[in-house]
Amino acid sequence: MTGEYKILYQGGTGEIVEKKSRFIATTKPVKSEEEALAFIEEMRKKYWDATHNCSAFVIGRDNKIQRCSDDGEPGQTAGKPMLDVLLGEGIHDACVVVTRYFGGTLLGTGGLVRAYSKAAQEGLLASRVVTKKPAKEIQITTDYNGVGKIQYIAGQMDIKALDSQYTEQVVFSFLVPLEMAESFISKVTEGTNGRSQIEEKSCVYYGISEKELILFPESLEI
């Protein structure tokens, strides 16, 4: 599978107040159940005096691992609504802990579901979510006559240049979205009259967040 999917890239903290009860949502990227459980324990220690520390996490691009905990709240009123928020947003590799300080007024089951859901959403709003997209690194070697045409094609297709080296020849390295790779190669070949040497390198995942290009370390198989 090589489609795009969303991950929690950077955690954050959000807070809401419902009838004087404080709900503090903290999120963190996690790659394994062990990482998620360690984070949950970390939050328990940080908020040791809280009434509840409820949690939910999803791991894997197919959500192979899904867990949630009500931590003493009535069944299905905390962890499950938080898990539903993660799944509803389509976010993977994420853990959220919602800490509650009881304010003295009971919220009822419906009120708890709404509060924990809203808190989880606030936590995500304070986080950085990145869409991981598949791409191919394509290296093009050309003479100086082909430089302008290649740059024009890349600009028209909004393809990012990772590197360029100018010596006797010019070597470009482009990050090309997987679905555009064939078209890009075809246009460069035509635009330079077949005089460019084109080499397809590794396939990777990338993302863009706050105008920052992010390359993820794992490669993908095509």
How would you explain this protein's 3D organization?
There is one protein chain. By secondary structure, the chain is α+β, with helices and mostly antiparallel strands. It folds into 2 domains: 5-126, Impact, N-terminal domain (Ribosomal Protein S5, domain 2, 2-Layer Sandwich); 133-219, 2-Layer Sandwich (Alpha-Beta Plaits), CATH 3.30.70. The protein has helices spanning 33-46, 79-89, 108-125, 147-156, 181-191; strands spanning 5-10, 13-18, 21-29, 52-59, 65-69, 91-92, 94-101, 128-142, 160-166, 170-177, 197-209, 212-219. The strands form 2 sheets. Strands 1, 6, 8, 9, 10, 11 and 12 form a 7-stranded mixed β-sheet that branches. Strands 2-3-7-4-5 form a 5-stranded antiparallel β-sheet, sandwiched between helices. The termini are close together.
Write the layout of secondary structure elements.
Layout: E1 5-10, E2 13-18, E3 21-29, H1 33-46, E4 52-59, E5 65-69, H2 79-89, E6 91-92, E7 94-101, H3 108-125, E8 128-142, H4 147-156, E9 160-166, E10 170-177, H5 181-191, E11 197-209, E12 212-219
Parallel strand pairs: 1-6
Antiparallel strand pairs: 1-8, 2-3, 3-7, 4-5, 4-7, 8-10, 8-11, 9-10, 11-12
